[in-house]
Structure formats: C-alpha cells, structure tokens
Sequence to fold (632 residues):
Amino acid sequence: MPDKILRMARSDASTPRRPVMLAIAGDSAAGKTTLTKGLVEALGEDRCTSICADDYHAYDRVERKELPFTPLHPDCNYLDIMEQHLQLLAMGRPILKPVYNHATGTLDRPEYVEPKEFVIVEGLHPLSTKLSRACFDVTVFLDPPEEIRHQWKVQRDTAKRGYTAEQVVADLVRREPESAAYIRPQRRYADIVARFAPIESRNDPPGTPLSAELLLRPTIQHPSLSSVLTDDHRTAMHLKIMRDADGTPTDCLHVHGHASTEEARQLEKTIWAELEEDGGPPDSLGRITDDQRSEPLALTQLILLYHLLAAQGSER
Amino acid sequence: MPDKILRMARSDASTPRRPVMLAIAGDSAAGKTTLTKGLVEALGEDRCTSICADDYHAYDRVERKELPFTPLHPDCNYLDIMEQHLQLLAMGRPILKPVYNHATGTLDRPEYVEPKEFVIVEGLHPLSTKLSRACFDVTVFLDPPEEIRHQWKVQRDTAKRGYTAEQVVADLVRREPESAAYIRPQRRYADIVARFAPIESRNDPPGTPLSAELLLRPTIQHPSLSSVLTDDHRTAMHLKIMRDADGTPTDCLHVHGHASTEEARQLEKTIWAELEEDGGPPDSLGRITDDQRSEPLALTQLILLYHLLAAQGSER
Fold:
C-alpha cells in the first residue's frame, strides 16, 4: 500500500498565498474589538479577514452554568482546533470556523472563512500555546489597568450582552483566578504590549483621552522612532529604552492623551514614511465611536499597520 | 523574521497514531448507513469513529430551495473543508465537524471528533477529489440498481425525514443529472464496488434476500478466495475473474441471496483465518434491522473488516 502521507502531499500540490497574521490577545473588554475594527477598516475588508478566537468555546452558556470554570479556562475551549485553524489560515487555507453567539450564548452554524492578504485574530487565547504563537507574524497584548477594563466590561456587557451590572461584577470576581492563570501570562509572548490608561502622576479631568504606553519589544523590527522622539518625559510623546520584566532591553513609547493632534500626526507621518505606500496614514485610525477619537489609539494602530504592511512586503 | 512554516512545524512536534481510513461512497439511500453500522458494531465504538460526509453541506434546506442545484452538486458542499478534515483525520488529528441535521434540514452546532483506530467516512462525495481519495486505505462504492435504490429512498425519507412519497420521487428526478455527473463517477475510484440486487436470471419470490456482486479490484490486496471458490455459476457463491470497464483484470465475487448460512459461514471463516485475530467473525455482521439478516451483507462487511484489520497490521 503506498504511503498515505506521501499520497496526500502529492494530491495537494496547490500552494496558496500565505497571509500576514496578527494576533490581538487580551482579557475580556480589554479593547480588542475596537483596535481590530480600525485596522480592518484601514486595510479594507477586501484585503483583511478578522476572526474572534472566542468562537472556539466548547460549551454554550447553559452548559457552562454546570461547569467549574469560566470561558477563560483552556478546558472551556477547543484550543487544539483553534491551533489547527490558525495553522490552516497561516498556510492560506480556508477554515470552517465555529461560531459562538455572544447575544444568545449559543453555538451556532459554523462559517466558511478564507484568509485574505491579512488575517487578524483577536481573542482571549491566541497566544496561549507555542503552536498558536508560531502562526503569527506580529503579536499584541492589550493590557489596560484592571479598574479601567472592569468599567469597560460593565458598560459593554450591560449594553450589548443582556447582563445586569451586578452579574458582570460577580462574573469578574469569578474570572479573576483564571485571568491570572491563563490570560495575563500571554502578555510575555507579545511583540507589542499596549496599555491605554490615564497618566498616574497627572490629575486630568474626566473626559481627557487615555494615554497609551506601548512596549515595543525587540522580537520584531519596529519603525525607527528614536530620530524624532526623545526620552524627555516632559513632552507629550516620548520614547524610552528600559528593561523588560526579564531584563531584555526594550523600547517603550508613551503617547499622552493630551498630546496635540499635530504632534501625533507628525509621528504618524514618520512611521508611514518608512513604508513605500502611496498617500498618507488612513483616516479611519483612532476611531472609538462615530464621534469619539483617540490619537494614542491611532498611533498604536498605525504601528500595527506598519508591521502588517512591512511583513507583507518581506514575504513577497 | 524566522520562517513561519518552519516555526509551526517545530511547535507541532507531536505525532499522533494514524488511523485506518475507510470510505463508503454512494448515492442517497444506497445502503451506506446500514453497511457502516455493522462495521462499527463489529469493531466496537471504542475503536471506530464514523462520520457522514453529508455534514459538509454548505446550505440548509431553506436556502437550497433558492438554489439551482441539489446536495449532489459539489458547489452545494464545502468539499475543500471535507478534504481538509479527511487529511486531518488521516494524520490522527481531531476535527470540529459541521453537522447537517437531516430531520430538520438545518446546519447545527459542530461536533468535536477524534479519530480512533478506524475511521469510516460514508457519504455522497468522499471519493470525488484526488486529495480526498488519497486519504483512504480502503474505498468502497455502493452501486445498487436504480429501481432498488429508489424504493429504499422512498421508504426511508417518508419514514424518517418527513417527506411524502411524491416529494421523494420528484426529488429523485431532479437529482438524476447530478447523480450521473457527480456521484456515479466515483464508482471508478473504489477498491470494492458492492451491488446488492436480485439475480436477474432468476425469478425469486418477494422476500428472497438480495444477492451481492462484489467487484474486488486489484488496487488493494484482497483475501485469497480462489482456493475455496470456483467460477462455477451454478453454485450459490462463486468467484470469477473478468475485465473491468477499462480492461483491467479484476475479481468478481457473487453471493446469491439463497446461499445457505452454512455455505456463507464457511467462506467467512476462510477470510477470517487469513487474519491473526482471536475468535471468529463478529456476530453483528449482516444485520439489516433487529429481525432481518443478510449473508451477502455479512460477507461484504467481513471483507471490509478484513481490509481494515490487515491495513492496521501493516502500518504498525
């Protein structure tokens, strides 16, 4: 009998184009969807596929009531299937993706998903295994302070997912040990850690845009910003080298919420100029809602966009 | 940036045991489920995974009403995903298999399926592409005469799927061009073609068990039956060499419906003796319903069982 593996390899000679893969990991309500939306819009839906890794939940909401763990627990998800689908997408193959319906809490009919030029995978666990991490060109972890994330989660889950504020708070308490055990450890595997937060030393009035602190780790080659930015803490934007938790030197970009649009735009142009792309940075970056914008968010997205386009250039 | 493919390969070092894969292809109501059931029972559910390739339907029953083709058409199915899942199963990997609910006509929540020692894949299209065929160790096509299949389909679809006889007949007419174009061509890719039918030259009374005509093609090594069977047409069981449609020499085993249980059992023992298995052929073979048995079916299943067990032996 001829060897089956060889036979399969011979029959599967097509080599589809491989997409550039970006992971956006973070806890529930850390801002993953907002970050993703701006990028998809900037690239265009015809060039960019985005999927949510939470669709790999193994149990529906009713079944979970009987279980001793929350969706943050690996055992509550088909992480092996997630890995498999990430590999397939990274190889340019389509997948039949499961669908978790956040509104009803049910597992619905799966969706046929084909990878376009860029694939953005956001979710609770995209960086949780060695194999899943290997599938990405660029990895991000969203790391807001817990009190900010809790506010965001209450806001969203009461408005969009039919929970009461009390239920959301109780849920956050129940999830905390699993956040600590399974979500936050992914932070160490990200090329970029983004933290949106007020600046602790300042007493900005409510409504001041959040600042961004971006850890730009040397695991990938970032656009060179040191020529335009200094490590002077008195300015609204500064770049500083520091030691990461494990001692590795790393860059940390601070963009203050009160930085002027002009300042931010100047930096955006510097980053954009390193790419050989027509026009300027897309206007869609930085949008939070239809009438709310954030320059720190725009800059974060621009740096990601830089990486996506640069990775695509390098693979062709 | 290190090469993503290499990185994925390095992270995915586990090599699960590969199962023996059997395809049972054939048109709607050709007897695929009956054949499969007896095999699964003989092997035991702890050793055997069976899946239905019709679960890869791309549209539900309501959507299909608007479409110009039937489920027999490749475009009505995610055959690329079917291929992918067959490859994964053949490599010993789990899949998240879509589920088509025949009772309601809806596409339901997918199922996590892990390949056990043996995987049986029955359906309309398992042999329809080169890559899908490459995934199997043994392939079967069920080829009953059309009038028999039509009777079976009316019986089943009125009893189990909520259709009227008129609807089933209209459906058969509508499906015929696609049966001819997409289902029957798979016959030529099977290692074994099984035809259950009355013997044309005899005028057996209704209720006589159907006979089996098994084309045992030289694409795999069959148990040697020529020592116990002759090509004498006067006996209830005979083995004959003939030319296949393309001129290749092939074996054809005839088992008449009126063959005695003793005769059939003798042949079953001969086949079984070629395997180094304990005990005799499993009793579950040949069961059609709880109170209906067929020796020709039992023999067909036994030959398949022989191949499954032999393939497993050869791969270890």
Notes: Chain A touches chain B at residues 1, 4-5, 7-8, 10-12, 18, 21, 58, 60, 78, 80-81, 83-84, 87-88, 90-91, 93-96, 98, 106-110, 112, 129-131, 133-135, 137, 220, 311, 314 (CB under 8 Å). Residues 191-316 of chain A form one domain.
